[in-house]
Amino acid sequence: MLEQNLSERIKQFKKIDAHSHIGYFGSWCDVGITPEELIDQMDEYNVEKSVICTYPIQDSLDAVDKYPDRFVGAAWLNPMDPNCLDILKDAVKNHNFKAVKLHPLEQAYCPNDECVFPIAELAQELEIPLMIHTGHPPFSLPWSVGQLADIYPDLPMVMIHMGHGNGMFIQSAIDMAKKYPNLYLETSGMPMHTKIKEAYRDIGSDRIMWGLDAPFHHPAVEMLKPIVSGLTDEELEDVFYNNVKKLLKL
Ligand SMILES: [Zn+2]
Fold first, then answer.
1. How far is the CA of 161 from the centre of ligand 1 (A)?
2. Which structural domains are found in the chain, ordered by start?
3. Dist. CA 82 → ligand 1 center (Å)
4. 99-102 and 71-76: which strand pairing?
5. Under 8 Å CB-to-CB from 193, ≥6 apart: which residues?
6. For the residues 160-179, what does the mean pLDDT come to?
7. What count of other Cβ atoms lies within 10 Å of the Cβ of residue 242?
């Protein structure tokens, strides 16, 4: 499968990145990328658009306004912020944002907490999906996202990182997506290539999408996982491009 020059193979597929960031992240990780650096990287690796989120939201509003053909906004909301619903309305109406981003680990709540319900209800009204960080106890476990999916069966939710680095959480993300048809999976930071093919075949061909999570990961590494997972080229086009385009109506 990898007989072809690897860098050619990686660049061959047109992509939309379902989950990335701009800006500098200090603390434990010490990584960062400017909007222009991300666009250069997208050009190099055949990424047409990236769905970006920042907290606070201003940097992503500015970047989407400046590069509307390359960036799609996901509004990163903190449910504890009394203005979060107004922030979402503004982002969608005035900046064409296409999703809500929730990071329960970063902001210390569970995805099925009542504080999320008003955001879920507004997202449903605006007809945009939730994109929820998953993979870390106690605040971002796939089972809690499953409970939110049970409460709002008509609201699509993407489990960002599909359980992330822990095999048990990866499996639970897949199990929850099997149980709840409104759950979708995103691949960034998830190390098991086999689970990409398994999710595509067992859960649904339109319910798994590729993401980079810039600046945390290198595009070549993240792109290689679907490629070596055993999916056909046609199936890879769904994972790399078609599925996020359809879900976010891009
Ligand atoms: Zn991220």
1. 8
2. 11-247 (3.20.20.140)
3. 23
4. parallel
5. 224, 225, 226, 228, 229, 230
6. 97
7. 18
Q: How far apart are CA 132 and CA 151, in angstroms?
A: 15
> What's the 118 CA to ligand 1 centre distance in angstroms?
23
pLDDT digits (tens, 9 = 90+) for 127-156: 999 999 999 999 999 999 999 999 999 999
User: For residue 38, what are its two tokens?
Assistant: 């991300």
Sequence-separated (6 or more) residues with CB below 8 Å from residue 177: 159, 183, 184, 185, 199, 203, 207
pLDDT, one tens digit per residue, over 10-44 is 999 999 999 999 999 988 899 999 999 999 999 99
The encoded tokens of residue 72 equal 């799609």
Using the Cα atoms of residue 80, residue 81, residue 84 and residue 86 in order, give the sign of their dihedral.
Answer: positive
Distance 3 CA to ligand 1 centre (A): 32
* Ligand 1: centre distance to CA 145 (Å): 17
> How far is ligand 1, taken at its centre, from the CA of residue 4, in Å?
31
Average pLDDT, the chain: 96
Name which of 207, 212, 217 is nearest 246 in CA terms. Answer: 207
Q: From the CA of 216, how far away is ligand 1's center (Å)?
A: 8
Sign of CA dihedral 15, 18, 23, 27: negative
Alpha-carbon gap, residue 14 to 24, rounded angstroms = 27
